[in-house]
Amino acid sequence: MKTNHKMTINGTPKTICGPQGKPPVSWRDRLDGLPPEHRTLVEGGSLSQRFSKQPLSMTHPVFIGGFYGLLVAMALLLPFVYEKGWNQDTMRDWAFLGVLLMLISAITGHFSLIIAKILRRPPISLRRMLVYPLPFLGLTILSVILVTDIESELSDSAAMWTRYIGWMLLLIPGPVYVHLSWAPRWRLLCRLEEGLDPFDGDVPPSPSAGVEGLGEDSDMKMAIEDIEEDPPILHVSDGDE
User: Fold this and answer.
1) Residue 206: exposure state from Cβ atoms within 10 A (0-12, 13-18, ≥19)
2) Where are the alpha helices (DSSP H) in the chain?
3) What would you report as the CA-atom Rg of the chain, rounded to the nearest whole angstrom?
4) What burial class does residue 38 get, using C-beta atoms within 10 Å of its C-beta: 0-12 exposed, 13-18 middle, 19+ buried?
5) Are 195 and 22 in contact (CB under 8 A)?
6) What is the torsion angle, in degrees rounded to the nearest 10, for the CA atoms of residue 116, residue 16, residue 101 and residue 82?
7) Which of 58, 148, 198, 220 would give a disulfide with 191, using CB separation of 3.0 to 4.6 Å?
8) Cα separation of 84 and 96, whole Å?
């Protein structure tokens, strides 16, 4: 199934990932022509495969980064409200914090895509055992600080560094994943939809199927001609000799 990703600029439709004048082709239609090791590199792990199931126009690194910022803001809602109370001012402060986190994460995702286009480096698969627990650990640290009075029992420097560590563990994994894994992989997927080899240049058309078909037809024709000219003797009895 082919998907067209277009946007309108000054009333004129423009393609996002496809070359001008040619309708974009789904990268899945071109994936089978890659070597197995390149195919594995383009598809990525389970998280990248979930993102790649969506249209590329919806999974731009800017959107993935902003989505991670939204998840962080939603995770901080309950501790934030518990600390300051459920009122209009608290919700306004939380909304401002959420927009700020989404904006920073989105800008970081766009910067990662620019770096990926300049360096043209392949995506790096991150170890889930090391990366996935970090946001939950950071959320736990910040929740303990916001909900309990443990911060008052610490010195000013210790409390400040504890908050910094909590924020770092909570915020860094998302941008790191986008920078090292998704932004380079998104660039490769776009090159596939443009009809380009994601690792080099133009993808040459594969004539193997047509050549094999012609070879099979010529072989069959020659075999039929040989049978007609010299039919095989299936059975010869002693009396006929």
Assistant:
1) exposed
2) 27-31, 36-43, 46-52, 61-75, 77-84, 88-119, 128-131, 133-147, 156-171, 173-177, 183-193, 208-229
3) 29
4) middle
5) yes
6) -130
7) 198
8) 15
Q: Quickly state the pLDDT bin for 51 (edges 50, 70, 90).
A: confident
CA distances from residue 237 to 72, 230, 231, 232, 240 in whole angstroms, order as listed: 90, 20, 17, 15, 6
Residue 72 has pLDDT above 80, yes or no: yes
| Cut 0.70: pTM above it | no
Token pair 């390149």 is at which residue? 38
Residue located via tokens 């998104």 = 186
Strand partners, 202: 196
